[in-house]
Amino acid sequence: MPSRQPTLIGVAAWLIFFCLACQADDSLSKTEAETRLKQLKTEISSLNNELERKRTALSSEQKLLKVADLEIQASALELRKLESTRQEHERELSALDAERMDYLDSLERRREILAEQIMAAYRLGRESRLKLVLNQDSPALLSRMLAYYDYFSRSQADQINELRQVLQTLDQMQEKIDMELSALDEVQKRRQAVLDEITDQRNQRQAVIEKLASRIDTDEARLTELQQNRQDLEQLLTKLSDALADIPTELGQQNGLLNLKGKMPIPVRGRVKHAFGQPRTAGLRWQGWLIDTDTGSEVKPVAYGRVAYSDWLRGYGLLMIIDHGDGFMSLYANNESLLREVGDWVEPGSSISTVGTSPVNGNGLYFEIRKDGKAMDPAIWLKR
């Protein structure tokens, strides 16, 4: 029996070492995968440049459109930050105003207490302390009256000091309120400047779109452009699928899309202007939904997932692609601004982008669901 003890200890130690080694390898694999995900941004940028180099037709107009879209996105994001800052200042002002009202109520109460003490002192008698001292008829009354005078004097002094402190605090609070009002005014001015800037940028973008539209003035040219746009998207999705294959999904206890069939929320409220399978042009059909909604509306993901793509793509504008695992992806195109980056985890109800306009289709969000790269009808998956 004693001879078996070292053997058992050795086996146990070997098993512990083996488990730790496996965990280290798994951790290393995940670390490498996360690094791979970060590198994906650079690879996507290179892929976009490669796709653009292959497209000579309308290249100058598309470059101008890309620049315009990115400028509008930068302004829209700045506007979003300013709006958040404005709301913070307004909350601070509201809190200061509420605190100020409390202090004003306290000030009024202290004034009332002081007034009551003065009236009480008046009712005790109009005799001065000197007269009371000279009046030797009742030593007990004299002692009591002097004690009362001392009490009221100390109480009045305390109330006066507290009043002074309250007034001083109110002055300090007013300074803070004035500072917040000034800061809020500056934010409002900056906000208006950004709004004006966005208006100018949108006008410039519209001029580019009109020039682009004049170059695609025939069904043949339009078909060629749409076909190439679709090929670019297919190539991008293939690249993303290959890159994401080695990256752990880490979806945890979240429901997969198969369990959410027919239950997922629509990404943005609006009328479906063009539905899946409807004719588009010259034999092409829509592979998703074009949802007509106001510019600037916030877009929500249809399910839990991870951002696989967040960039500009010709024909789709500012595009976001979310990987949901098991080969499922959702696509959100024609955005004015993208609020999440590659690698970010997103949940239903969170904002991922804001709606913009499409050079081809006008206002609205273009939405697709893909399974292993194949477009699927959103009507089967979304709850309306």
Offer a concise description of the structure.
The protein is an alpha+beta fold and 384 residues long. The protein has six helices and 16 strands. Helices cover 60% and strands 17% of the residues.
Q: How are the SSEs ordered, and which strands pair?
A:
Blueprint lengths: L3 H51 L4 H66 L4 H6 L4 H77 L3 H26 L19 E2 L5 E4 L4 E3 L2 E2 L3 E4 L5 E2 L5 E9 L3 E9 L2 E11 L6 E2 L6 E3 L1 E2 L3 E2 L1 E7 L2 E3 L1 H4 E2 L1
Parallel strand pairs: 1-16
Antiparallel strand pairs: 2-5, 3-4, 5-14, 6-11, 7-8, 7-10, 8-9, 9-11, 9-14, 12-13, 14-15
What would you call the structural class? Answer: alpha+beta
Number of strands: 16
Average pLDDT across residues? 76
Residue share in helix = 55-70%
Shape: elongated
Describe this structure in words.
The structure is a single chain. With 384 residues, the chain is α+β, with helices and mostly antiparallel strands. The chain has helices at 4-54, 59-124, 129-134, 139-215, 219-244, 378-381, and strands spanning 264-265, 271-274, 279-281, 284-285, 289-292, 298-299, 305-313, 317-325, 328-338, 345-346, 353-355, 357-358, 362-363, 365-371, 374-376, 382-383. Strands 2, 5, 6, 7, 8, 9, 10, 11, 14 and 15 form a ten-stranded antiparallel sheet that branches. The protein has a two-stranded parallel sheet with strand order 1-16.
